[in-house]
Amino acid sequence: MQYVKYDLEAYRQAMHSFIGNGSESQVFWKALDFAFEAHGNQWRRSGDPYIMHPCSVARILAEELDIRNPEILAAALLHDTVEDVEEVTGEVIREKFGPNVEAIVEGCTKVTHYTGDRQTFKKLVHRKIFSGAAAKLEVMIVKLADRLHNLRTLSSMPKHKRQKISDETLDIYAPLATILGLFAIKRELYNLALAYKFPRQGSRLQVHINSLRSDPAVLQIIDNVQKAIEQEGLEGKVALRTKGLWGYFDVRNRILIKEIESPQEILILMKTRSGCYQALGVLNQIYPPIPRTIRDFIANPKPSGYQGLHARPNINGRKYLFKIRTEEMARRAQRGMVRDWGGDSKVSSRFFKEIQEMFDILGNDDSVSYRDMIAASGRKEIYTYTPQGDLICLPINSILLDFAFRVHTAIGHTCVGGMIGKQKVGLNHQLRDGNVIKVIRQEGQVNFDPALQTLCQTPKARSELSKAFRLRREAVSSQIGASLLSQELRRYGVPFEVVEKEGMTDVLAYFDIDSMDDLFLQLGEGRVRLRELIYEIRNGLYVGRPTLFQPTGAFNRVDLTTLDPVVIKSSACCKPGPLDKGVIGLLSERGLSLHRKDCSQLQKINFQREDAVEVRWKLKNTRIEKNQRIIVMQATRNRLFMLLSVAPEEMKVIDIVYLGKGATLVGDWEVNFQVANLYGLKKVDRHFSRSGLRYEFELEQ
Questions:
Q1: CA-based radius of gyration for the chain
Q2: Tens of pLDDT along 370-393?
Q3: Is residue 387 a contact partner of residue 415, using CB atoms and an 8 Å limit?
Q4: From CA 59, how far away is CA 19, in angstroms rounded?
Q5: Are the CB atoms for 166 and 197 separated by under 8 Å?
Q6: Cβ atoms within 10 Å, residue 538
Q7: Residue 262: enclosing H or E segment and its boundaries?
Q8: N or C: which end of the chain has fewer CB within 10 A?
Q9: Is 391 exposed, middle or buried (0-12, 13-18, 19+ CB in 10 A)?
C-alpha cells in the first residue's frame, strides 16, 4: 500500500475562507491540532492518512451545507477520536472544547462494549445515534456528512463491506437526508449507495441517464422557455436536471427500475420572488399545465423550508416537472434549514422540534421499527389543508390521525373523526392529495386502538400514540404492583403498614427506585422480583418478628376492569378470554400476557410463582366498547330467531347475516350485537351455551 501525506496547510487555507481566524473560531483551529495529533499514526485502507476523513467531514459541512458554526465543525473533526483513540475520552473533549462539542461527539460515538448478537448490536448503535440527535440535531448532520465521505471513498473497501454500507445508507441515512431537506446530499447518498449496491444494473442505467441529457426534444423545450422569458423582458436562466440513479430506486421493493414517469426536471432560476410568478405565467402560455398540478411552495413553504413553484405540463405525450425559484431558494433546497441553525424563525424552530421528536421515538421506542418509520417519513408527500387554508405536508398513505397530530398534539389526542367536504371519515381514513380536512374532536383524550399505530405514517403520530399506550399500560401495571405487594405481605403475615416506615427509603435505594409509585410500577411490570423485595422488607423493616413460611403454589390475584389490548394480550396458543376461569397473566413491560392455566405452552415457560398472577375481571365494571360477533353453526332460521327472541335484555342485536348459499334450510349465521359490560356478555354466552346449538365466539377488544 502506498501511503499519502496529507496537505494540512492547504486544508487550513480552505477552512479559513469559510470561518476566518477570529476569536470565535479558535475552538475549530484548536480541535484541528488536537485531531491531527490524535489520529497522527492512523491510516485508512485506501492508504490515505486517517486525519483526511474528519477533515473532509468538517469541510463538507462548511462548503456544501454552509455551516459556519465553529463548534459544530470542531465536533466533526473530533467525531472519531473517542471511538478510535484510547486515551481520548468524553471528559477530555469536554475539558478542552466545552460541553456542546462533547455532546455532539458523544452522540456520534458508537457503542463499543456489547456482548449480544450482531443484529441487536446494530440496532443499539443506531438507537444511540438517534437518541443523540434527539438531544442535539447537529449529531445527525455530522453523521450524514460522515457517511457521505465514507461513500465517496468506499472503493477501497472489500465487496461485502461495500454492500453492507450501501444497504444501511439506503435504509437510514439517505431517507434521513430527505426528511431534513438536504436534497443535494440525499441525491449523492442514493447515487453512490445504489452504484455499489447494483454495480452492473446501475452502470447500464447510468448510460441511459447520460443519453437523456442530450435529448434534442428536451433541449428544444429549454430553448423555447428561455426565449419566451426573454421576450417578456424578464431575467431568468433555464437549466435541465436529469434524475440520477436516485430517481429510479423503488424504495418499497428495494430495486432499480428501468423507466420512470418523469426522468427529467427543468429548473427556472429568476432574480426575484415576483419574477417567479411572472415566469410561471409565461410557462403556462407556451406549455399549459395538467389541471391541479401547480404547487405554490413560495407562499406555502414545506416544513423543511423548501420554496418554489412547481408545474407539470404534458409535452408531446411526456410529463415534465418545472421548478421555478430564485437563486436563494435553490440554495436552500440543497442545504435545507441547517443554514438557519440557531435561527429564531417560528417555521424553522417548529421544523427542528418535529425532527427532534422523531429522533426521540426512533432512539427510545422499541415498539416501532425505526427503518419502517424512516422509510415512511421519507416517501413522496401529499399536500392537505386545514379549513383555514393552512398547508399540511404529509407522507403518502397518511391517515386522518397523522393530519390531526401534525396540526397540534392536543388535537390529535382528542380526534375521533373528520370531515372531508360533506363526507364523514374515520381515524384510519387514508388521505389524498388536496384534501381539505376538518377534525372532529371530543372533550377528553381518546383511547386509540393499537392497530392505528402501524397505519400512521408520521413520526409525530406514532410517537404520541406510543406515549399514550405506555401511560395506559403503566396505570394498570401500577395498580397490579400495589395489589401484588399487599397480597404477598399478607401471605407472609407482614402488615402492609410496614412499608410506610422511614426505613422503606433504604429498601427503595437498594433497588435504585425513587418512590413507592415507581416501585408499584416496576412490580407490576415484573422488573422487580417480588421474592427479593419481600426478603429485604422482612429483614430490614420487620426483622426479629415472626412471619409465615414462604408461600408456594397459589398465585396472587388481580381483579381488572379493563379489556384494553394495549394492557392485556391474549396468547395465540390457548386464546383465553375474560369469561374463562383459571386465566394466568405473566408480568412484563408490555402488559399482561394471558394464558389458560392448563396451557401446554405455559408449562414450558420457566417462571416463578411471583412472576405471574391469576387474572379475573369485575364483570359489571368492565365496559365493552366494540360490537361483538357470534357465529351460530348449522341452525335453521326459525331456531335462531326464536333463540334471539328470548335472549337476555343486555344483548342489543345489530344485524344477522346468513353465511350459507342458496335457500338451504340449515346453515351458518353471523349475529352482530352490543353489550354494555362483561356481565351482559356472560349472560349472552350462557344463553347460547344452554341452547344446544354449536357456536363460536371470540371477544373483540
A1: 32
A2: 677 676 655 677 889 999 988 888
A3: no
A4: 11
A5: yes
A6: 17
A7: none
A8: N
A9: middle
